[in-house]
Amino acid sequence: MSDLPCPCDPAHRYANCCGPLHTGIPAADAEALMRSRYSAYVLGLEDYLLASWHPSTRPQPPLLEPGARTKWLRLKVTEHRAIDDIHAEVRFEARYLENGARRDLRELSRFVREEGRWFYVDGVID
């Protein structure tokens, strides 16, 4: 897997992009965390998704449905905005197939940094 393209951006290698974050390295910023979360959805890494979700808004598992027929196709980050040192927003578009139908997801995600780690708080779907 380490030499394969990263799901968040095929121009980068997984080992040099989201892979280190999935093994516990803190994300440098909210965009890096958001990209790693997208890759975790692609790869089915539920533990990582839950750990990177802020405890105040984290849902109860299971987050990923066993046997779900969702295939993530691409990610496009359209905006990354630092609000202050500990708050940021990332706007993105993700394309996926669900039960054979193509879908587009557009979201403005909110992030907070605590004790040197970024966490996903919530998002508003456009």
TrEMBL record:
InterPro entries: NTF2-like_dom_sf, YchJ-like, YchJ-like_M
Domain YchJ-like middle NTF2-like: 29-123
SUPFAM superfamilies the record matches: NTF2-like
Segments crossing the lipid bilayer: none
Protein name stated in the entry: UPF0225 protein Lysil_1918
Domain of life assignment: Bacteria
UniProt family annotation: Belongs to the UPF0225 family.
Gene3D superfamilies in the record: 3.10.450.50
